[in-house]
Amino acid sequence: MKQAPLSSSAEDESTALRKNAANENLDFGILANRIGFHLRLAQAASFQAFRDEAREIDLSPGRFATLMLIGRNPGISQTTLAAANGRDKSTLTPILEDLEKRGFVKREKMKSDRRSYQLTLTENGRKKLAELTACAKRHDENLDRIVGPKDRAKFLKILQKIAAEVGHKE
Amino acid sequence: MKQAPLSSSAEDESTALRKNAANENLDFGILANRIGFHLRLAQAASFQAFRDEAREIDLSPGRFATLMLIGRNPGISQTTLAAANGRDKSTLTPILEDLEKRGFVKREKMKSDRRSYQLTLTENGRKKLAELTACAKRHDENLDRIVGPKDRAKFLKILQKIAAEVGHKE
DNA sequence: GCAAAATGGTTTTGTACCCAACTAATTTAC
DNA sequence: GTAAATTAGTTGGGTACAAAACCATTTTGC
To answer: Which residues constitute the domain of residue A94?
Structure first.
């Protein structure tokens, strides 16, 4: 008696039985159609793939965005940085501490406002960023292949729209 | 109104000035065009929005998928469940422990294989799932509005494609 | 039949993250 | 000018997750 006491009448049991067989015949219910759910699955998969790709570089995917943003916006503050890549500022504290300790990032108190730091890359940081950029390119080529060149722009636009609008509606 | 009254005289150019002004004039470099990056931002925003929406229900978004999958696939094992929603099985251990303790999920050793559990919802679990489903519907309506009905199906398909294909490229 | 491999779950360890409370510096309000 | 509010960053508490090492129970090989 494996299972499937539910709806044994209306549904065919053969599919229900197979559900436990550890393969793909699962009923996802409303999830099958939920954008949020698939967004999470896709993100997790992409994240994992990037990490594998960048394993040799020894810098997690989260750090990549951090380095890039500092590199392109020298003097940026931690708060601005946090907002730009969608994380809480407290999340950045240990990350920057680490990046500084490893010699990729320099933090200097601003003259005009001694509360905040000006973040810049060191020469080493720039080198690391270049490595990571190459790595990210490989990764994105892979994603591009999956998404397809025709839909890429549109897809990207929708993602940005979600990030910008969900939450603060109205 | 914020402004940028920093460094009236010194070293910075006008662009540099604006970068610290906490607004959107940042240079995202290659990130601006990276699917992985925007996937992360969109996911984080959506996740956050869902959590806010479901705050009154006192069950995190991650648990929703768990309950749904158990509800639709009674007798499912933890390993299958983990695979179905893209998490490691070890992640589920504390979650299921909690859900069981709260009386939403029942875990029974299988007769045929005493290593694995058969997971089912309790009556209470079914009630909770119904609540959460309503909540998820609201949330997804919001997302649907943002994505737009015309692109929804396509968008969803691409997300699924990413989850399925990235990583184990063939 | 029994050692070895495989499998379901748990434990342990470590990372990434958020939030709320906090410190220090700066702005505002009066 | 000083008290109150605001802002940049840190700290502490807690959740969610993965990876690897680990039991216990099958399953497989011979």
So the answer is: 59-165
